[in-house]
Design brief:
Strand content of chain A: 15-25%
Shape of chain B: globular
Mean pLDDT of chain B: 96
Strand content of chain B: 25-35%
Order of helices and strands of chain B: EHEEHEHEEEEHEEEH
Shape of chain A: globular
Distance between the termini of chain B: 12 Å
Number of strands of chain A: 28
Oligomer: heterodimer
Mean pLDDT of chain A: 91
Distance between the termini of chain A: 40 Å
Structural class of chain B: alpha/beta
Number of helices of chain A: 27
Helix content of chain B: 10-25%
Radius of gyration of chain B: 15 Å
Largest sheet of chain B: 9 strands, mixed
Low-confidence stretches of chain A: 1-31, 255-266
Largest interface: A-B, 38 and 37 residues
Structural class of chain A: alpha+beta
Chain lengths: 778, 217
């Protein structure tokens, strides 16, 4: 489960007021219950509902359990009423939203599990561990489903790279992903990194994971069978991460980072650092292997990972999904430190733990498997009839809590929070960047927008499992659809993550539709058909009506695009309260799209140029617009205008056309291909040239507007068969235009720029490393 | 006869399936050997694969050398059996004293995953390759910076024990060393991953020449 997005309990921990680091003994007199529920983040109405459900006042432990389960993270109480509008059904969807991960049928008895999640707040405070545990959490969501995780993707958004604090966060986040992902043995095959001032105090770390499984091994998280055992697998339970969902994910940061103050000087952030969990990839690696072994032997009835809200979440959700109850012996939970109070054990977010539901007759077989992998396995619960979740101190001991399991898991509040467009929206939209002064030197402006992300991905193992056909840095990663223990399929998977806050700040609805369009076009560029989408909705404070308006609009834009493109949304994550010093981040919905390639027989061409080939642009008929463009924001700090519309019908035709051309039997059909997005046609051409070391000469681009516009649904194709590509475009009803030819040592756009490749290469390669701590290799 | 290769699996190893897949692709027969085994049964060669044996805690390879299977690996190697350590396996072999020297953190203090050019400096080992050829091989390590004392280095040079050298040293390794062998030439450790370069769909196929010679030795 996500470790994000709990609404506003404030900086207090889950400990009842008056109880700090010292463990509460049984005799500690609590303050009034009325103060307690507010300190835990529950409103008076929510507390009254709990009392209604129980028919009595809840005790402290019960209140702590409701507080975590009714948090935004578990209950989606601000976003839930809107998320329902997303389309989630399709014939190939085996598991949609609501489980730990979405699962789609890839044919031939093979299924693909996918999910994306944020770990924004922990990464802001302790970048290395915050990002590392983000990786660990998303992996567990995937292998919980019975899948072997085969790929990670990271979508990072940081403050300006020149800012010392943002550098520190960036370096730590990348090292955390590298340290955990590499050691746990799952390749990181792609992602994106964006630097923008709106993330200076609140960086975004979104991680997507994809796994594969034999369809027959699909495991769900329901507890069934009275008398079955709930086994806690993996790490000891400690005080790390207590209040993670509330202390971190809820609180907007008060101090402004990135204003010259290093984070360590921010007393508030510093004080929250102990709430960040600490990851152990070695424990997770053994847990993965042990769980996959257990599934193959048919030893578990259901299983769920422990993330946000810890044992409370795992026990009540498994029981509720199975329509059962559960007795949990809190005294049996193995602990990392002595004197932990029951509420600490029940809400700890210690990492690398799973809850498996097991038949009693399988217990010794389970222990044997766990022993082989040195994974701790402890019976902490028993499935019961009647739907009650009871927390006991010893199997025959005192009943510490007794609540309906389903009321924790499913009966959380849902709010229709007020929505309102930002007051300055009309002004910003009418402020068109076409009135900005044109570039003095288009080549210099282009160079300023180039950044080779290899500094990041060279720190990630992106080749493990021998599946990586196209690794990081291209439009989409391409993997063979394969995994150890799975028969070869001959198919391929395409993976991409995309987001664009500049577009969404101007128009969250159209901007999000454009983000979906771009992601689907990225997978089409490697010859894949988009098959499923997962979303990570990163927004500001939902108590601000304009943030709720952004969220609602973004969901509508995503729903429109996914409906029109026939793309199911199979899972997602909502991260709210991304706010620092009173400033919400720009709306940043990030999507992860998985595409399928039926016959992967040769590597797709990728974004490159081949000497002497012809360049065409497919798609894009509308008037070009610089609204929301990288050029306007980066060169002029201008973030206004009205986004060009997306024609989703044309886009759908373009997707099929591009995937078909890339998969054509004749490899001369597409020698290179790249979608036009961030930085427009100029950056697209430059990236193709830089990747291949081949220049180009292009004409018919009248001005910088056409060069840098980010209007949607456009693809540059480098082809040896221009007539055939044109004819295919005509047949598909997709417009196209001749751009020029590939070749030479410069990027030439007649009348606008003539940029030697070496100059562009030096700008592109140096953009990130030149800002970071020196690596003596370079 | 098809060569049978034992691939040692420590908890935390992660390249074992890749090594098996690459060897089988080249016509060999490979089987996984769990680190708690005390015998290698009837294998013709042993590979210690990449990964993070025992989490690389303390130091890469420092705990793995105490795994029960290492007594059998040592006996096999000392009897002249072909023994290869790839990446983490190389680290384990140095910790176990089967190869001289040590692998410390990369000079740039960052993990490196990349494909690099490596020159074959000796063809007279169980890992073969034509002398002087340059291979494109993936590297994937944080601790790949080979180091040893001057006497050991002089010995390695004199006995032609440097098997592979980086063309453009990526990690600060002494004398550009990417792989070495023991004096008897039957134990080889290398940081690059030949198993990652055996399938044209995934890029270079230059690793196949090395693994093929292991199957034929």
């Amino acid at each position: 489960m996500a470790d994000e997005a709990n609404p506003a309990p404030g900086p207090e921990s889950l400990a009842p007021p008056g109880i700090g680091a010292a463990p509460p003994g049984p005799g500690v007199a609590p303050p009034g219950i009325g103060e307690l529920h507010r300190a835990l983040g529950l409103s008076d109405d929510e507390a009254a509902s709990i009392e209604g459900i129980l028919g009595r006042a809840p005790n402290h432990l019960e209140l702590a359990m409701y507080a975590v389960m009714w948090s935004e993270h578990c209950s989606y109480k601000s976003s839930g009423v809107h998320l329902r509008r997303l389309p989630s059904k399709a014939p190939h969807v085996l598991v949609g939203p609501g489980e730990n991960a979405g699962v789609i049928d890839a044919g031939d008895g093979v299924a693909v599990a996918l999910r994306i999640e944020s770990h924004n707040h922990p990464s802001a405070i302790e970048p290395h561990q915050g990002a590392a545990t983000g990786v660990g959490g998303i992996l567990r969501d995937i292998f919980t489903m019975g899948a072997r995780p085969i790929a990670l993707m990271d979508s990072l958004r940081m403050g300006p790279i020149q800012d010392p604090h943002s550098k520190w966060v960036f370096e730590g986040v990348v090292s955390g992903i590298s340290g955990y992902g590499n050691a746990v043995g799952v390749p990181t095959v792609g992602g994106e990194v964006v630097f923008d001032p709106c993330y200076a105090g609140n960086p975004l770390v979104n991680v997507m994971c994809v796994g594969v499984l034999p369809t027959s091994r699909l495991v769900l998280s329901a507890a069934s069978g009275v008398g079955n055992l709930a086994m806690l697998l993996g790490s000891l339970t400690g005080r790390d991460g207590i209040g993670g969902v509330s202390v971190l994910a809820s609180a907007a940061f008060g101090a402004q980072a990135g204003d010259g103050q290093p984070a360590s000087a921010m007393g508030e952030a510093e004080s929250k650092r102990p709430s960040v969990q600490v990851g152990d990839p070695y424990e997770e690696k053994r847990l993965i292997e042990a769980c996959l072994d257990l599934y193959d032997r048919g030893l578990v009835v259901g299983i769920q990972d422990l993330g946000g809200a810890g044992i409370t979440c795992a026990t009540c959700e498994t029981a509720s999904r199975g329509g059962m109850g559960m007795d949990v012996n809190v005294a049996a939970v193995p602990r990392r430190e002595p004197h932990m109070a029951p509420f600490e054990v029940m809400t700890s977010e210690s990492q690398e733990r799973m809850l498996a539901i097991v038949r009693p007759e399988h217990l010794s077989a389970l222990r044997k498997v766990c022993q082989r992998w040195d994974v701790r396995a402890t019976e902490i619960g028993r499935v019961t009839e009647g739907g009650r979740l009871r927390i006991l101190e010893g199997w025959q001991g005192e009943v510490l809590a007794d609540v309906p399991a389903a009321s924790l898991a499913d009966d959380g509040p849902l709010y229709h929070r007020p929505l309102a467009p930002p007051a300055d929206l009309a002004t910003r939209r009418s402020d068109d960047p076409s009135t900005l002064p044109p570039p003095i030197d288009c080549g210099a402006d282009l160079c300023a927008m180039l950044a080779d992300p290899s500094w990041v991905y060279h720190q990630y193992d992106h080749q493990l499992f021998l599946n990586t056909v196209i690794g990081p840095g291209d439009d989409a990663a391409v993997l063979r659809l394969a995994a150890p223990g799975l028969a070869p399929t001959g198919k391929g998977l395409a993976l991409t993550t995309d987001g664009n806050a500049r577009w969404c700040a101007l128009d969250p609805r159209r901007g999000t539709a454009m983000v979906v369009a771009e992601a689907t076009l990225n997978v089409a560029c490697v010859g894949a058909r988009p098959a499923a989408l997962v979303d990570c909705l990163n927004f500001g404070n939902p108590e601000h009506p304009e943030v709720m308006w952004q969220l609602s609009e973004a969901i509508d834009g995503m729903a429109e695009a996914c409906h029109a493109l026939g793309l199911p949304v199979v899972g997602g994550n909502v991260s709210l309260y991304n706010e620092s010093a009173g400033h919400d981040i720009d709306a940043t919905p990030v999507v992860g799209v998985v595409g399928l390639i039926e016959h992967l027989t040769r590597p797709p061409p990728g974004a490159r140029l081949v000497e002497g080939a012809t360049l065409l642009v497919l798609g894009g008929t509308g008037r070009p617009s610089l609204a929301g463009s990288r050029w306007a924001a980066q060169v002029h700090g201008h973030r206004g205008g009205t986004l060009a519309p997306v024609d989703l019908e044309v886009h759908r035709a373009l997707l099929a056309l591009v995937a078909g051309l890339v998969g054509s039997a004749d490899p001369r059909m597409v020698l290179g291909v790249h979608d036009v997005s961030d930085g427009g046609l100029g950056v697209a051409l430059a990236e193709m040239a830089l990747r291949s070391g081949v220049g180009c000469r292009v004409s018919g681009v009248p001005s910088h507007v056409e060069l840098f516009a980010e209007s949607p649904s456009r693809v540059v194709v480098c082809t040896g068969l221009p007539e055939a590509v044109g004819a295919a475009g005509d047949a598909a009803g997709v417009s196209w235009a001749l751009l020029g030819t590939a070749g030479g040592g410069s990027i030439v756009v007649e009348g606008l720029l003539d940029l030697p490749l070496e100059a562009a290469l030096s700008a592109w390669r140096g953009a990130i490393p030149n800002e970071m701590a020196p690596d003596v290799r370079s | 006869m098809t060569a049978r290769i034992g691939v040692i699996v420590f908890p935390g190893s992660n390249c074992e399936h890749d090594v098996v897949a690459a060897l089988e692709r080249l016509g060999g027969q490979a089987e996984l050997v769990w680190h708690k085994e005390t015998s290698l049964a009837d294998v013709d060669a042993v590979v210690l694969p990449g990964g993070f044996a025992h989490g690389d805690y303390l130091r890469p390879g420092a705990l793995a050398r105490f795994s029960p299977v290492m007594d059998a690996v040592r006996a096999f190697a000392e009897a002249g059996g072909p023994t290869i350590g790839i990446c983490n396996g190389f680290q384990v072999l140095t910790e176990a004293g089967l190869l001289p020297g040590a692998l410390q953190k990369n000079r740039g203090l960052r993990f490196i995953c990349s494909t690099v050019a490596v020159r074959v400096e000796s063809a007279r080992t169980v890992l073969g390759g034509a002398l002087g050829t340059v291979l494109q091989l993936p590297i994937n390590h944080f601790e790949g910076n080979y180091t040893c004392d001057p006497e050991t280095l002089a010995g390695l040079r004199a006995e032609e024990q440097v098997v592979l050298r980086y063309v453009d040293n990526p990690n600060g390794s002494t004398d550009d060393i990417a792989g070495i062998c023991n004096r008897r030439r039957n134990v080889v450790g290398l940081m690059p991953h030949p198993e990652r370069a055996c399938d044209p769909l995934c890029g270079s196929v230059d690793g196949a020449v090395l693994l093929r010679s292991l199957l034929n030795c």
